[in-house]
Amino acid sequence: QVQLVESGGGLVQAGGSLRLSCAASGLTFSTYTMGWFRQAPGKEREIVAAISWNWSDGNTRVAGSVKGRFTISRDNAKNTVYLQMISLKQEDTAVYYCAAKTGRNPDYDRDTDYEYWGQGTQVTVSS
Q1: For tag attachment on the chain, is the N or C end more exposed, with fewer CB atoms within 10 Å?
Q2: Residue 37 backbone dihedrals phi, psi, to 5 degrees
Q3: pLDDT at 12 over 90
Q4: pLDDT tens digits for range 107-123
Protein backbone atom coordinates (compact mmCIF):
# COMPACT_ATOMS: atom_id res chain seq x y z
CA GLN A 1 0.00 0.00 0.00
CA VAL A 2 2.99 2.30 0.35
CA GLN A 3 3.33 4.37 -2.78
CA LEU A 4 5.74 7.09 -3.86
CA VAL A 5 4.89 8.95 -7.05
CA GLU A 6 7.34 11.36 -8.65
CA SER A 7 6.36 14.13 -11.00
CA GLY A 8 7.79 17.28 -12.53
CA GLY A 9 10.47 15.85 -14.78
CA GLY A 10 10.91 16.85 -18.37
CA LEU A 11 13.16 18.47 -20.93
CA VAL A 12 14.94 21.68 -20.01
CA GLN A 13 17.81 23.65 -21.49
CA ALA A 14 21.10 24.00 -19.68
CA GLY A 15 20.90 26.81 -17.17
CA GLY A 16 17.21 26.28 -16.63
CA SER A 17 15.32 25.12 -13.58
CA LEU A 18 12.93 22.36 -12.66
CA ARG A 19 11.05 21.32 -9.53
CA LEU A 20 10.38 17.67 -8.82
CA SER A 21 7.68 16.45 -6.47
CA CYS A 22 7.19 13.13 -4.72
CA ALA A 23 3.80 12.37 -3.21
CA ALA A 24 3.75 9.64 -0.57
CA SER A 25 0.84 7.55 0.65
CA GLY A 26 0.39 4.55 2.91
CA LEU A 27 2.97 5.64 5.47
CA THR A 28 3.33 8.10 8.32
CA PHE A 29 5.23 10.57 6.21
CA SER A 30 6.55 12.81 8.97
CA THR A 31 8.45 9.93 10.61
CA TYR A 32 10.44 9.04 7.48
CA THR A 33 13.67 10.31 6.06
CA MET A 34 13.18 11.10 2.39
CA GLY A 35 15.82 10.99 -0.29
CA TRP A 36 16.30 11.83 -3.93
CA PHE A 37 18.54 9.63 -6.06
CA ARG A 38 19.39 9.75 -9.72
CA GLN A 39 20.71 7.32 -12.29
CA ALA A 40 22.24 8.41 -15.56
CA PRO A 41 22.62 6.00 -18.49
CA GLY A 42 25.46 3.58 -17.87
CA LYS A 43 26.08 4.85 -14.35
CA GLU A 44 25.32 3.72 -10.83
CA ARG A 45 22.44 5.22 -8.90
CA GLU A 46 23.70 8.04 -6.70
CA ILE A 47 22.38 10.11 -3.83
CA VAL A 48 21.33 13.63 -4.69
CA ALA A 49 19.80 14.92 -1.46
CA ALA A 50 18.04 13.79 1.70
CA ILE A 51 15.87 15.34 4.37
CA SER A 52 14.98 14.13 7.84
CA TRP A 53 12.97 15.26 10.83
CA ASN A 54 15.71 14.41 13.33
CA TRP A 55 18.89 15.89 11.86
CA SER A 56 20.53 19.06 12.95
CA ASP A 57 22.28 21.27 10.40
CA GLY A 58 18.99 22.18 8.78
CA ASN A 59 17.79 18.56 8.55
CA THR A 60 19.08 18.28 5.00
CA ARG A 61 22.01 16.78 3.12
CA VAL A 62 22.99 17.60 -0.45
CA ALA A 63 25.56 15.85 -2.61
CA GLY A 64 28.65 17.86 -3.44
CA SER A 65 28.00 17.62 -7.17
CA VAL A 66 24.76 19.59 -6.84
CA LYS A 67 25.42 21.71 -3.76
CA GLY A 68 24.41 25.30 -4.32
CA ARG A 69 22.09 24.35 -7.18
CA PHE A 70 19.65 21.81 -5.72
CA THR A 71 17.47 22.20 -2.64
CA ILE A 72 15.40 19.53 -0.94
CA SER A 73 12.32 20.36 1.12
CA ARG A 74 9.20 18.69 2.43
CA ASP A 75 5.62 19.56 3.27
CA ASN A 76 4.39 17.11 5.87
CA ALA A 77 0.81 18.38 5.61
CA LYS A 78 0.81 17.33 1.95
CA ASN A 79 2.96 14.19 2.38
CA THR A 80 5.23 15.55 -0.31
CA VAL A 81 8.96 16.03 -0.74
CA TYR A 82 10.41 18.38 -3.34
CA LEU A 83 13.67 18.80 -5.19
CA GLN A 84 14.24 22.30 -6.51
CA MET A 85 16.87 22.33 -9.24
CA ILE A 86 18.43 25.45 -10.74
CA SER A 87 21.34 26.09 -13.10
CA LEU A 88 20.88 22.67 -14.62
CA LYS A 89 23.73 21.09 -16.52
CA GLN A 90 23.85 18.33 -19.12
CA GLU A 91 25.44 16.06 -16.53
CA ASP A 92 22.26 16.35 -14.45
CA THR A 93 20.42 14.30 -17.07
CA ALA A 94 19.12 11.16 -15.34
CA VAL A 95 16.10 9.37 -14.03
CA TYR A 96 15.36 10.84 -10.62
CA TYR A 97 13.94 8.60 -7.91
CA CYS A 98 12.20 9.38 -4.66
CA ALA A 99 12.90 7.06 -1.73
CA ALA A 100 11.82 6.70 1.89
CA LYS A 101 13.42 5.18 4.97
CA THR A 102 12.78 5.06 8.68
CA GLY A 103 14.63 7.76 10.54
CA ARG A 104 16.48 5.76 13.19
CA ASN A 105 19.49 4.80 11.09
CA PRO A 106 21.61 7.90 10.44
CA ASP A 107 22.83 6.58 7.07
CA TYR A 108 21.21 8.30 4.13
CA ASP A 109 23.50 8.20 1.11
CA ARG A 110 23.21 4.60 -0.10
CA ASP A 111 20.26 3.14 -1.94
CA THR A 112 20.30 0.10 0.34
CA ASP A 113 19.41 2.35 3.27
CA TYR A 114 15.94 3.00 1.86
CA GLU A 115 12.81 0.87 2.14
CA TYR A 116 10.45 2.33 -0.46
CA TRP A 117 10.99 3.69 -3.94
CA GLY A 118 9.05 5.50 -6.60
CA GLN A 119 9.15 4.65 -10.29
CA GLY A 120 11.25 7.65 -11.20
CA THR A 121 10.86 10.69 -13.40
CA GLN A 122 13.09 11.56 -16.35
CA VAL A 123 15.05 14.80 -16.35
CA THR A 124 16.79 15.66 -19.60
CA VAL A 125 19.00 18.73 -19.86
CA SER A 126 19.86 19.84 -23.37
CA SER A 127 22.64 22.11 -24.52
Answers
A1: N
A2: -120, 165
A3: yes
A4: 889 999 999 999 999 99
